[in-house]
Amino acid sequence: MGRRFILVDNSPEALEVMARRFGGVEGIEWIGFDPAPHQRSE
Fold first, then answer.
1. 12 within some domain
2. Among 14, 15, 27, 41, which residue's Cβ finds the most Cβ atoms within 10 Å?
């Protein structure tokens, strides 16, 4: 879709949800959070 955005949150639960929802989406830069443990590897 070509959208650009910034998501900001400091809630660990919210970051885990975002990690799952954006799993497999390229071009996302995570700062201060490692999404890998919360994403499925396919």
1. yes
2. 15
